[in-house]
Design a protein that fits this description.
By secondary structure, the chain is an alpha+beta fold. It has 11 helices and 4 strands. The protein has a 4-stranded mixed beta sheet with strand order 1-2-3-4, with helices on one face. Strand 1, helix 2 and strand 2 form a beta-alpha-beta unit. Helix 3 runs antiparallel to helix 4 and helix 7 packs parallel to helix 10. The longest helix has 25 residues. It is elongated. The N terminus is likely disordered.
Length: 308
């Protein structure tokens, strides 16, 4: 009887003192296969969706412990456009994630991006393996599936940590850089190389890790932690911080015109920035509009409506 009690006590201690390993993501994954021939068994795509969900939500990506209410909410939409006889698919991948703003229910769009060059191989029920020391795996097309999803997982982590602490995202951007440097190689795989276009996985992480673009990390921190997080209690100071972030991005844009990060950062932020300066002084509105007209032309009409 005493031995049973001791075993129960030991089990209790082991259970309650296991290292905390709460995962980082609360990710939704959707696989659309509307454009795939009806001759292909559509159950495959349900299996793929479940496997990707488990890959993102079940893996421990960092050494940081996340409580349930700290998990990063994100959406991955894999839209299949073509299939071949050897279980290879062409697709686009849309990634969205928000960043909760302090003391509000609002989520700022941290990332809203479509990767249009995604080719991978998937056989139903295959294990989604990812080894950071062997990103390319044994079959490039098969490895590309997990390499791309892991890459964006680290990008999301980097952006999130950057928004809370100055240069907080560096370790995760380096992980994404490692994936790019060791990415699967095949003639049909695009997005990993500088010559694959001006907007792709290579250039995004290059912008986030190249020391000459370091000020963009300062801008991220000022925009979110010093800016949006302070809007409820210290609106005037918050506007100053957001203006500082925009000025920093403007300086980077003047020195290095048309880097990918500029378009990437402002995607989905038109209404948000307009609201930040909605109650600003005429001078603040004028300065903000002047800067935004140079660094975010895509949302210019929206800014004009909000700030003029």
């Amino acid at each position: 009887m005493m031995r049973v009690k001791i075993l129960i006590l030991v089990s209790f201690i082991l259970f309650h003192f296991q290292p905390a390993r709460s995962q980082e993501f609360q990710a939704n994954v959707t696989v659309l296969a509307n454009r795939i021939s009806s001759s292909v068994n559509k159950q495959i795509f349900q299996t793929l969706q479940s496997a990707l969900y488990d890959f993102l939500n079940g893996r421990k990506w960092t050494n940081v412990v996340f409580s349930n209410n700290e998990k990063i909410q994100c959406n991955f939409l894999l839209n299949l456009s073509a299939a071949t006889d050897n279980n290879t698919y062409s697709a686009s991948l849309t990634i969205q994630t928000g960043r909760p703003i302090y003391n509000t229910s609002y989520q700022s769009p941290l990332m809203n991006y479509m990767d249009e060059s995604f080719v991978f191989k998937y056989v139903q029920y295959q294990t989604l393996d990812f080894n950071e020391n062997r990103v390319g795996g044994t079959d490039p097309l098969t490895a590309n599936l997990t390499a791309v999803f892991a890459y964006y997982a680290y990008i999301i982590l980097g952006l999130n940590f950057d928004s809370y602490g100055l240069r907080g995202g560096d370790p995760y951007f380096q992980q994404a850089q490692n994936i790019v440097s060791n990415a699967p190689e095949a003639s049909s795989l695009n997005g990993w190389k500088p010559f694959d276009g001006l907007i792709n996985r290579y250039w995004l992480v290059e912008n986030l890790t190249n020391p000459k673009y370091n000020p963009i990390h300062d801008a991220m921190y000022n925009y979110y932690r010093q800016g949006l997080d302070q809007m409820l209690d210290h609106e005037t100071d918050a506007r100053v911080a957001v203006m500082s972030a925009l000025s920093t991005l403007n300086t980077v844009n003047n020195e290095y015109n048309n880097i990918m990060f500029m378009q990437f950062f402002f995607q989905g932020k038109g209404a948000e920035i307009g609201n930040v300066f909605k109650h600003g002084t005429p001078d603040e509105k004028s300065r903000a509009l002047d800067i935004l007209s140079r660094i975010d032309v895509s949302n210019l009409n929206q800014y004009k409506q909000s700030l003029q």
